[in-house]
Amino acid sequence: MSEHVVVLTGAGISAESGLSTFRDAGGLWEQVDLEDVATPEAWARNPELVRDFYNQRRHQVLAARPNAAHEALVNLENRCRVSVVTQNVDNLHERAGSSHVLHLHGSIMEARSALDPEEVIELGEQDLSPDLTCSRGHPMRPNVVWFGEAVPAMETAAQLVSRADHLLVVGSSLNVYPAASLVQFVEPGVPVSVVDPDARLHLPGARVIRKPATEGVPEWVSGFRAAFSI
Length: 230
Description:
- The protein is an alpha/beta fold.
- It folds into two domains: 1-19 and 66-105 and 150-230, TPP-binding domain (Rossmann fold, 3-Layer(aba) Sandwich); 20-63 and 111-144, 2-Layer Sandwich (SIR2/SIRT2 'Small Domain').
- It is built from nine helices and nine strands.
- The chain has helices spanning 11-15, 28-31, 34-37, 40-45, 47-63, 68-77, 92-96, 154-162, 213-227, and strands spanning 4-9, 81-86, 101-103, 106-113, 120-122, 140-144, 166-170, 192-195, 207-209.
- Helix 7 links the parallel strand 2 and strand 3.
- The longest helix has 17 residues, at 47-63.
């Protein structure tokens, strides 16, 4: 149980469960202007449009199912310490069974007070609506990090990466900051692996598995367990 694997996951792992990515060709940012749905200004200007966008995204998440990559990470957790740091706002890691998941960009399954970011509720199948308010009567907004907002979980994520014995990057180009800076916290000599069919990460010494997450992650987990006889 001494080995600590930190897994950084991005949109690629959820795409194989049928969830649209944001930045790839045909992704969500080609279908809607981020300035209309993913900024504090958008919320102030047209909260109804923002609510509708995230309600639709949440319905898609509820209809999706964890895939073989999510399940392989759970299997690994059964035998060693695994910390998942995800850029995704879905809950597929949790639904697969991962017990240590840190959401860098928040969770689409939650809402928080527009006044107090510490007041958070689980939405489940409930939609965001104008009638949903916090304890002080203010509207509840999606509990996601919008463009132009700070990423509160970054410090915790950096600490996890700095304590990793192995770093695995799955389905993320790590082109989006500040998340992209996390690889800078890996200690010298710590093995780094990347699973992505279109991997463009330039990490010196990293092992690259150019396969979809549903193939590459089970392959990596199988090799890791064999190497450490776990």
